[in-house]
Amino acid sequence: MSGPKRAELLQKFGHAGGHLRECLGDALDYQADWWQHLEMDFLQERHQRWWDHAPALQRAYWLIGQLWHYTDTVPSLLRGSVQDWLEEEYFSYAQLVRVLKEDLDARSTKDQLAS
Q1: Nearest to residue 102, comparing CAs of 69, 68, 70?
Q2: pTM
Q3: Helical H segments across 1-115, by residue range
C-alpha cells in the first residue's frame, strides 16, 4: 500500500498544509535523528493506518516528497535549530528537504555498508 497522495493544495498552488510543516518542524527538534520522530494525524483512517505501519525511513521519504516543491521560506527559528548539524544553507522548505534527503541517503548507504 502506498502512502497518501500529494495534497490538492500543494499540487495546484505549491502550498503545503500546516500539518506537514509542523510534522517536520517538531521532528527536527531531534536533530540528525529527526526521521525517527515523525508524528502525524490523518483525517482518513486508511491514511493513518498506512502511516502507523510504515517504517520510519519510508515516512521520512514520504514527507520529503510532500515538501519537495514547496517554496515557502523556512522560519528563521527552525533554520537556526538545525544549523548545528546541517552544513548547507537553505531558505525554502524545498531546499531544506533536499538537504535532508541527501543526509538520509548518506545514512542509508553507510548503514548498508556497515551491515
Answers
A1: 68
A2: 0.83
A3: 8-13, 18-27, 45-53, 56-67, 76-82, 93-114
pLDDT grade for 10, boundaries at 50, 70 and 90: very low
Q: Which residues contact 88 (CB under 8 A, 6 or more apart)?
A: 99
The residue extents of the domains of the chain are 14-114
What pLDDT score was predicted for residue 16?
66
C-alpha span between 55 and 78 (Å, rounded):
25
Report how far residue 34's alpha carbon sits from residue 96's, in angstroms, rounded to the nearest whole number: 13
Neighbours of 44 (CB within 10 A): 9
